[in-house]
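Page 42, continued from yesterday. The earlier attempt failed because a stray header line got pasted into the input along with the sequence. Redoing it now with the clean sequence only.
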Amino acid sequence: MLELGPDDDLFAATLGGMGLTGVILWARIKLRAISSSLLSVDIDRVEDLDGAFAALSARGGPYRVAWLDLLCSRPGRGIVTRAEHIDGGAAALHRSWGGATVRSRASVPARWPAGVLRSSTVRAFNELRYRRSPHSARGHVESIGAHMFPLDALDSWPRLYGPRGFLQYQLVVPPDRTDVLRTAIEQLRRSRIPCYLCVLKDFGPSNGAPLSFPIAGWTITLDIPRAAAGLDALLDRFDELVAEAGGRVYLSKDVRMGPDALAAMYPRLEEWRSARDGADPERVWRSDLAMRTGLVPA
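This time it went through. Structure tokens are written below.
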């Protein structure tokens, strides 16, 4: 058994290491103290991607996210929120609000039929969501649960996508490469492959671990039906765009990437392999993802 700290190479290899450096028996994690489970939320409705970038960069709380509608006639419009914790004294005035969790209100049946969730129904939902949002609001009070985990209100929500489910593709690019995001959205539109949920965020500096996903820049997440025709070929093109821009794809959500794409996106791959092989020279720890992407020999 090894006890590791931030100065150890194996510690860094374990961050984002996809569970391939061994079993973590215990961990000491520093958390941020908060005084309530309520948030003060600033809301802005934006007309396009430029508006989303501007609203995410505006003054406000540290919890920033943009929901983007990619099925409308002007893809990229959306709703941007910036949230921060309310201190305990002010929170006492809102005792009736919810807490850190969300109570389930319904559950999607196990035999949910394919085809119920489709572009037309999601387009109508997106239109309603966009129109119901205020153009601009400041200091709107929400619980952590309602703001950060709204899908918890619907148990088994992935069943909405049908038997084949959905693929979530998340990428990050440096702050000056927003053109990659614009190109990806435009290629999605031209391909007629529907994206039912799109989320845009900004990242701070990387933690320095060789396989850690976040780098300073913009990250976008796309939820796409797995059954969509031509999806794998489209995402292969996205991989090339992301790698060329100095970005990367999130391995924890990947189900399709190959060794060449991985090596192009993670330039410190050999450094990670060296630390990993030192801890497991027999290469006992492996996974389907690790063998598919070449993290470990097949």
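Notes: DSSP finds ten helices and ten strands in the chain.
Reminder to self: strip header lines before submitting.
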